[in-house]
């Protein structure tokens, strides 16, 4: 029942379905600058009940409006005109993106109370640091960071709307298709401003096998056959990419990257302000999103630690938005998960334990890989571990600062270090495609830089005189770790680096020096 679902933690699929449905009843309106909120809602209500709405800034004021009934959108679309094509000719595609302007702006009084605008990007690191200094423990500092960086309810609605608008195009060719977000938009670990990864799904789940068994005939559609699934994917994305490029309102900078390992179309969606990556259904990526969703829901410390470690890594130039030999956010997230599995008692279960709890409906075999794990969060016993985040943060740096990366790899299925199957500097098993290393791109200097920074951070947290720093109004705790470490520390760093392969120490220290200046700018700029 609905009441029963709303009291417990919803499953990943329930949340997805609900949000996709919400997005189908939603429109986006570019508003006039002198807007009276009451008047706008009054007008919209003439087309049907408005269930929720919010305003945000993106090249002017915009409103996302969710109706209770899908039919209200058709009613509104009927009342909307086509732009005046004096200087431009328009592509007559009628979407759910509208521009409202006032007919006689002078007579309309402006809003008495200013509109509440929902933030769509996070606080710059420098402002965050000031906020952190006011907290009373590292644990509360970490929750402040989480609250500033995590996706808001409004931002998530906007992400699902972007997918829903792309789906309107896909449906012109494939009426049954859906477009769903995956990755950071849905796994509870996305930060404000991150890209929207979306995929096109053709699996029509509504057909029950029982329906197909009826009658005396085996029946199937006649469909175009191609030599490989990859070619089919490339053709579909190529056409939809062209479609968005030629006809999609607000879709700009469309790039088709069809020869990548996973073919995709990249584009900027101006109305929502998102950078989007569209690919074709990738079931394993969805399973990874759901696995992280489960871990993120099990204990609040999980997300607080992940967001903190990722912010720390970005400030120190350990991660980078450009692809390269850096550790990725996904790898870092998996390292945090592994660390939490290794606590005593463990804070989150291993993937094998989640698989043991799975029932028949949780069974997923994808391309020969067993991707089954429990989806109902109630079946997972809560942890008995009561360690504070103050402890966990220091222990995380301590653990990986002294991890034997030369010999061991990180395996989340078993929750223990296993011998490396091959010689990549950092080896993290892909939780589902067991023969893949998700951190294959990371080179030795980058790994050693990570180890050095982890040791430095563990050392700072142990040595720090918190009370003195608070009295002196100096940054302390997490705030200290989010300021790029000064060059004066490099001699200390050298001492703490004993025991790390000396052949790359020289290049490492040089890269630290280089990076510190650029990171300060990058961290502030992001």
From TrEMBL:
Pfam families: MTPAP-like_central, PAP_assoc, RL
Domain PAP-associated residue range list: 391-426
Example GO biological process: RNA 3'-end processing
Assigned keywords, A-Z: Magnesium, Metal-binding, Transferase
Co-factor(s): Mn(2+); Mg(2+)
Residue span(s) of domain RL: 11-79
Any GO CC annotation of this UniProt entry: mitochondrion
GO molecular function: metal ion binding; poly(A) RNA polymerase activity
Ranges for domain Poly(A) RNA polymerase mitochondrial-like central palm: 138-296
Region forming the signal peptide: none
Protein name: PAPD1 protein
Organism of this sequence: Cephalopterus ornatus (Amazonian umbrellabird)
